[in-house]
């Protein structure tokens, strides 16, 4: 699914995304040591809990703007809702492969609270927010490309190589119509394509 967010250049939104990325890399230990299944799932689950926020915030604001101004939304509202739901589905497919612990859940709640508030306040400038999310989505694309490359390059018999060929969760096979043979690798490719 195409992102509804613009990716045109904007210095401050790019700088903001770079800060978020730095914090995220440190928090998920992405830059330290080798990439393994645990790190991938931690990063993907955390990423998707955040990625599902902007679409819903934008949809709610569009909804109230439409009511307040008594004007049509030009299809924006449904597009944002679809985007939010798509990101939530990514989360639901990953959550089948890992049960987050208490600390992880607390971190997610904290991040949702912080980022949700920030994004809601920042939406006073929708164009800035759309550019910011566009940059975040580009970074997510880089992350999934790295994951796919790590899976492809994993030595035969290693944890990552074995996981790559495992069946994708049923919810993922259904959501992306992968058929019965859909693997975790196929799932990662489908998430990146979204
Ligand atoms: Fe996603």
TrEMBL record:
GO cellular component, one term: membrane
Signal sequence segment: none
Protein name, entry field: Alternative oxidase
The protein's required cofactors: Fe cation
Key word Transit peptide present: no
Membrane-crossing residue ranges in chain numbering: 44-64
Domain of life: Eukaryota
Organism lineage string: Eukaryota, Sar, Stramenopiles, Ochrophyta, Bacillariophyta
Family, per entry: Belongs to the alternative oxidase family.
